[in-house]
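To: structure desk
From: M.T.
Subject: fold request, one chain
Message: Could you run this one when you get a chance? Sequence is below, nothing fancy, just the single chain.
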Amino acid sequence: MLTFDDDTRVDPEVTALVDEYVCLLDRRRGTAWLELFTPDGYYLVAREAEIEQGNNVLIIGEDLKRLRARIVSGAERDRRRSVHTVSGVRCDRDATHATASFTVWLDGRPTYCGVYRMALARHDGKLLIRRCEVVLFGDIVHTPIFLPV
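Reply: Done. Structure tokens follow.
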């Protein structure tokens, strides 16, 4: 997986994919958001400490079938408005891995921040997300996570 220390570059197609990722979440368009993933896509959310230690303590770790159910359930349970800000979108030479820093505001309050780490792949000629790791900074997650971050 790509790290901040790797030789990276800016790629307009990757930047557009990450922008679409956050825009669809902010607009609560979960079904369209799922279409950004390959059919074998995987999504996980974990604190940075768990990622660094290499343990398997995940807040969320789901394939698309389970993620689809989370989106339906989360949309009913969580009515908070979200605003994602993203910066530093970078990818490796062949655009198979990307990173982006993010902050999520819920109902006008900064709630989560961290980095997206994505494995990317082409499917039917389109660049999609094969695996998305949402790495949360901070020791404590202060609010439940119902919907994707």
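Reply (cont.): The two ends are 19 Å apart (CA to CA). Let me know if you need anything else for the meeting.
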